[in-house]
Write a structure and sequence with these properties.
mainly beta; Immunoglobulin-like; 5% helix; five-stranded antiparallel sheet
């Protein structure tokens, strides 16, 4: 045995020299490299449309064969995986509920079992998930219309349930996470994106994807309310809320969703809220209590109505018993910022003089040191000869310190920095709306979820005109203090009162009231 060891030891240098002198090709790479073409990073589909994706797999080994699976899972909720097809090319009738999904293509090598995956974003919409909702009055009833460049439908409540809501319009809102009990399946169905359509006598929770009525006023409360007089609805990142008979009810969005849980008790206090409110998606709402004549709000985790009380930094009174609020709006400075707020007030005396209260709305941001403090920063007393004194409706520019208002067929703005007013005209010099068309609604709408998808950005000044029987909806692009020519125009029946832009990327934190 020792002889063998010595022989191997003597021969080792020869072996080493052989290795060193080897000129072989050692270009290591994955066995059977492949490339897949034909799959896009994002697909946007309408409900019940056909999604066809032909794929090409180029392989180093031309003889390789594969097993295929197309799958989807929703990006929120339980993320259950659903199989769509086991063919190489996808040909699928889009039957999943509207929402945002991951679309996964798996191809598995039959020879070695190696699996590869390609993922895309799949956005499933119904026709009702991209466009404009208009809340309107028809006689003593309330309904909604829908408009988009490709599809229009009017009287949606009437068509869906057989009759419009009783009473005049009060509020149009959104909730992205409503839950309801499916009696046939005996399970709670969550994450339903719905409209809150509210008249002075009724409320309907309307699922956007198919216009199904999922709930009404009574279904939102644990106990039957003695008075049914719904008013403002608001959604947000902390609480959803509803005003009924001047009292505000809220539900914590971090607990069970509305529908699975319900409104219990109104915020405590001796108060009666005026029918106006403003907020962005994340801050607390700004209300006005007609009993104390003070501005107030609500906050998650607090069972009382909360007032904006004065401290050593407050510049103006906190109570205004001699004035009634007419309009509240805000200039948005970011989703997580308070921005600037403005409230138009009218004196109760015979002259009915008007004023504009300026707010620093960090007082409504729960983590800001100014939270719940009186942060009225200025008051503009409007001259009696001003057109604003006779204004019939208002709307706040969401980008610049411009308060829009109208009188008859004239659209104006009040410059909140320089304290002057001016008529708004088109870039070409014509009036904003044709002569003789009375302006009945103004709203500047910005929806920005462009970080998620480039086309998820909308910025329109919405002007509605009407004669009591019919209306026109003008969607203007703006240019500084003017509106651009050639707006989108839609027509409907009734008297419009509110408008909302809808997107499949809408969320509770994106809608501003």
């Amino acid at each position: 045995m020792r002889t063998i060891y010595l022989f191997l030891l003597a021969f080792l240098p020869v072996l080493c020299w052989s290795c060193y002198d080897d000129k072989g090709n050692y270009d290591y790479h994955e066995l059977n490299r492949t490339e897949v073409t034909g799959i896009k990073p994002v697909y946007r589909c309408d409900l019940l449309s056909r999604l066809s994706i032909p794929t090409v797999i180029q392989s180093e080994d031309k003889g390789r064969t594969y097993d295929y699976v197309w799958m989807t899972y929703q990006t929120t909720g339980d993320k259950k995986i659903d199989t769509l097809s086991q063919e190489k090319d996808l040909d699928w009738i889009v039957s999943a509920d509207p929402g945002i999904y991951r679309l996964v293509f798996e191809y598995r090598d039959k020879q070695n079992g190696a699996a590869n995956y390609i993922e895309s974003e799949l956005i499933i919409e119904s026709k009702y998930f991209r466009g404009w909702y208009v809340m309107k009055q028809n006689g003593e009833t309330t309904d909604i219309d829908f408009f988009s460049p490709d599809f229009q439908n009017i009287g949606l409540i009437q068509k869906s349930r057989g009759e419009a809501l009783t009473g005049r319009p009060r509020s149009l809102g959104y909730i992205g996470d409503y839950a309801y009990m499916d009696e046939e399946q005996e399970e709670m169905v969550k994450n339903n994106a719905c409209l809150m359509v509210i008249s002075e006598k009724e409320l309907q929770v309307v699922r956007i994807s198919d216009l199904k009525m999922l709930g009404d006023f009574n279904s939102l409360f644990y106990e039957k309310q003695g008075v049914v007089a719904p008013g403002k609805w608001f959604g947000g990142s902390e609480e959803h809320g509803l005003v009924n008979d001047g009292k505000v009810f809220t539900i914590d969005v971090h607990s069970s969703p509305l529908g699975a849980a319900k409104f219990a008790y109104a915020k405590a206090g001796d108060y009666e809220l005026a029918h106006l409110m403003t907020k962005n998606g994340t801050m607390s709402p700004l209300f006005f209590d007609t009993k104390s004549s003070k501005f107030c709000t609500v906050a998650r985790g607090n069972s009382n109505l909360l007032y904006l009380n004065s401290d050593d930094q407050s510049k103006f009174p906190e109570a205004y018993p001699d004035r009634d609020p007419l309009y509240a709006g805000f200039l948005d400075e970011g989703m997580w910022e308070g921005g600037k707020g403005y409230v138009v007030m009218q004196n109760k005396e015979a002259t009915q003089a008007r004023s504009i209260l300026h707010f620093d709305l960090t007082c409504l941001v729960y983590y800001d040191p100014a939270f719940l403090k009186n942060r009225i920063t200025a008051i503009d007393e409007i001259p009696l000869e001003s057109e604003l004194t006779r204004a019939e409706c208002f709307g706040m520019n969401r980008t610049f310190q411009m308060l829009y208002f109208s009188k008859g067929d004239k659209l104006y703005y009040y410059d909140l920095q320089n304290k002057r007013e001016q008529e708004v005209k088109r870039v070409g010099g014509q009036p904003a709306v044709p002569a003789g068309e009375k302006i009945v609604m103004i709203k500047h709408i910005i929806f920005d979820n462009s970080y998620s998808a480039p086309d998820e950005y909308t910025n329109k000044l919405v002007i509605a005109t009407g004669n009591g029987s019919n209306y026109k909806l003008y969607l203007f692009d703006t240019s500084a203090d003017k509106v651009k020519d050639n707006p989108e125009v839609y027509q409907g029946e009734g008297i419009p009162s509110e408008v909302m832009y809808m997107s499949s990327k809408m969320g509770n934190g994106y809608l501003c009231y």
